């Protein structure tokens, strides 16, 4: 799996990204080999998809609605090979990433990071931070989490790293 810029993801053969098509935000994919681009079908609830992460096996994307007015939005799982998008019940987040096992999700809500199964069950706290965490990414060996922490009091950001145990 390859890392990419925030809002993009790649499995090495395709790049996933947001783009504007006919005045509407869509989620697109492009083949690296020839640059051919196509859009992924999403429910209307995802009017402006914001890409959080690509699962370790490259089969699923984590999305949220960028146009939502609330600071925390529902998370969605979308298959990269087609099929209906699935809303993860009971989870609201401003960012999220797949855990290295590909079956759990690490998500940021307020100043907390929590872990849940990909169906929204088995939620437990991972860490409480002195700010809001964004751009959550695991190291290639899955032992460390890297993120950008936004401090709402000082209006500054800093790069953080946490061990897998929080």
In short:
The protein has 166 residues and is mostly beta strands. The chain is 0% helix and 56% strand.
| Mean of pLDDT | 89
Task: Assess the beta-strand content as a share of residues.
Answer: over 45%
Show unreliable segments. Answer: none
Spatial arrangement of strands, main beta sheet: 1-2-3-4
Alpha-beta content class: mainly beta
Largest sheet: 4 strands, antiparallel
Helix content: under 10%
Task: Give the overall shape, derived from the CA principal axes.
Answer: globular
Order of helices and strands: EEEEEEEEEEEEEEE
The count of helical stretches stands at 0
Query: Could you give the distance between the termini?
Result: 23 Å
Radius of gyration: 15 Å
Structure description:
- It is a single chain.
- The protein is an all-beta fold and 166 residues long.
- It has strands at residues 8-10, 14-21, 24-31, 37-39, 49-54, 60-65, 73-79, 86-93, 95-98, 104-109, 112-117, 124-128, 132-138, 144-151, 156-163.
- The strands form 4 sheets. It has a 4-stranded antiparallel beta sheet with strand order 1-2-3-4, with no helix packed on it.
- Strand 2 (14-21) and strand 3 form a beta hairpin.
């Amino acid at each position: 799996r390859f890392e990419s810029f925030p809002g993009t993801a790649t499995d090495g053969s395709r790049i996933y990204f947001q783009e504007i098509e006919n005045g509407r935000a869509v989620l697109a994919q492009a083949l690296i080999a020839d640059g051919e681009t196509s859009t992924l079908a999403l429910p209307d609830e995802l009017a402006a998809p914001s890409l959080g992460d690509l699962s370790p096996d490259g089969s699923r994307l984590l999305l949220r609605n960028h146009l939502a007015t609330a600071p925390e939005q529902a998370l969605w799982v979308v298959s990269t090979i087609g099929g209906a998008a699935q809303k993860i019940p009971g989870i609201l987040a401003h960012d999220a990433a797949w855990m290295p096992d590909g079956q759990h999700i690490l998500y940021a809500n307020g100043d907390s990071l929590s872990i849940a199964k990909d169906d929204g069950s088995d939620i437990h706290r991972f860490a409480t931070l002195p700010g809001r965490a964004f751009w959550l990414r695991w190291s290639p060996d899955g032992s460390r989490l890297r993120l950008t922490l936004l401090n709402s009091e000082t209006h500054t950001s800093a790069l953080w790293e946490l061990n897998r145990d929080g």
